[in-house]
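Annex B. Sample input.
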Amino acid sequence: MIESASHAAQRVRTSPLQPLPRRRPLLNCMSYLDLHREVAQDIDAEIETALERLGPLAGTTRSTVAKLLEQRQLRHPLSVLPLLTHAIETGNPGPAIPLSAVHLLWWTSACYLDDLADADGAPISGELTENEALLASVITGHALPIQIILSQKLPEEARSALITEILNGWIISVDGQIDHMCGDICSASRKSVTETYRTKSGAPFGMITAMAAIFSGATAEKVELWREFGQVFGILWQIFNDQEDILSGRGEDLLNGTVTYLLASVIEDASPASREHVLGLCSAAGCSIPARAELASLLRTPAALDRYRAEIDGFRAEAYRILDELGGDGTYVQVLRHLVDHASQMLLEADLAPATASDAA
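Annex B, continued. Sample output.
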C-alpha cells in the first residue's frame, strides 16, 4: 500500500528534522512522488535510527525487523501524507519526517498481518520463517512507532496525544479488519461496507493525519478535521486497492469471500432473482473457478461500473470539501489534492461480454 525506499544503511543520513529547502517554483508543479523522492533518504535514516535504539541486547530483533522491512516494501509512497498535512499547516514538511517513518512502519506491519490472515498466508523468503516475521511485525508496527514518538522533543501533552493516536489507530483498524473478514454477504450494503472501510483503512490514515496536525500545533478542531480527511482518504484508498486486486488477476477478495464496496453495490442493486444468483456465486467462489469468473464479470458490467464511478467521485468530492475547509498553504494543498485524485482513479473497464459459469467451465 505504501512504497518505501529500502537499503537505509547505504544512504546518506541527514537530520530528520532538517527543513526541506523552500523551492517555490518547483513546488508549483510538484507531485507527491516528487516530494517522496526528496525525503526518502531522511525517512530511511529515521527508521535506521529507530532500529539502532533497540540496542545491543536486541541485536537479533533488529536484524529480523530489518529483513522484514526489506522483504515487505510497499508499492505506494503514502508516507508523504503526514508531510503534506504538516506542510499545509506550517508551510514546511520537514519536521514531520519522524511521522512518515511511523506511518511506513505501521503499514508494513499491518499489511503483513493482513496477508497472514488471508487464505493463502503472507509470502516470506527463506531468510525469515513465518513465525520470525510475525514477531518482527509486532515490533515494527507497535514498539518502533512509539519509540520514535518518545524520542521527539515535545511537550508531554503532545507526546501523550500522539501515543494515544497510535494505540487507538491499531484498536479501531483491527476491529474494522475483523468486521471485514467476518462480513455477512447477505446483509452487505454500501453503507455497511463504507463504515467498515472507514475503520479498517480510514482509521490508520486518520491516525497519521491527526498526528501530523498535533505535531504542527494545530487546534483541536483542526486535528479532528484532519482525522476526518484521513478517514475519507482511507475509504478511497481501499476502493483503489479493491480495483487493483481485480486488475492483477489475483482475485483474492473473491477467493477469500471478502465483501468489497463494488460487490455490495451489485448485490444491493440486483433484482430479487438476480440477488439470489449473485449470492450463490459468492458462496461457490472460494472453491469454484467458473463461479469466480462469472462473479468477476458481473462486477464489471457497464451499469455497475457507472454507479461505482459516480460513488468514487462522491468520496473524492468529500475529501475536496474537507481540504477546502482546512485551508492552509495552497501549494501543498494542491499536491495533496493530486494525491486524492490518484486514489480516486477509476481503474476498471466494463466487461462488454459478461461470462457465465458455464462459459468459464
